[in-house]
Amino acid sequence: MQTIWVVDDENNIRELIRRYLEKDGYRVRTFANAEELESALISGVPDMFILDIMLPGADGLALCRKIRKEHDLPVIFVSARSEEFDRVLGLELGADDYLAKPFSPRELVIRVTNIFKRIQPTEIASKPITLGNVSIYTEQRKITVNGEETNLTAKEFDLFSLLAAESGRSFSRRMLLEKIWGFDYEGDERAIDDTVKRIRKKLREKGARPELSTIRGYGYRIDV
Length: 224
Description:
Elements: E1 3-7, H1 11-23, E2 27-31, H2 34-41, E3 48-52, H3 60-70, E4 75-79, H4 84-92, E5 97-100, H5 105-119, E6 129-131, E7 134-137, E8 142-145, E9 148-150, H6 154-165, E10 171-172, H7 173-181, H8 190-205, E11 211-215, E12 219-223
Helix pairs in contact: 1-5, 6-8
């Protein structure tokens, strides 16, 4: 059973999320603020975090930064603040999804389930995809450059491995949004550009080949 930790200062929101997730078979633990969650992290981590942005004390964005320093686990933001700046900043920090309040708790459950489906390893062992000095191990969800592992978030891995699996093929931004974020994603295509920017930075720091190319006015592809 997968465990999800929910951080929200509104008790009714915490309980609503908990009831819907537990009904779907998830184990849920709730926290009212960042300090409570940080104390719990000393003894272990869940399989996913759901974080409110507007929290007393350290906000959800600061909490996500701390989590990302040590753990590559899925993060979903929920917030009453729906400004584009918050959505983009959340995605730049490596969040896997963003829902603005008020939201449908059933939609949240669907998004949680979709993320877990994407990050679960396949049952059939497969050979790595090798492009230049980069190897993608889809079963282990691992990418190496010259044999050295490169840390990508779940969304970054999904996007890069999709492009790598069909190197040379151009994908539109809308196509990538639907395949990686899902058909029900309501955000804009800026999420794709921000994710690609982070992937490029991480891979270039390792001296990776091939190149993740921009198709102006359309999308992206990988050129070997």
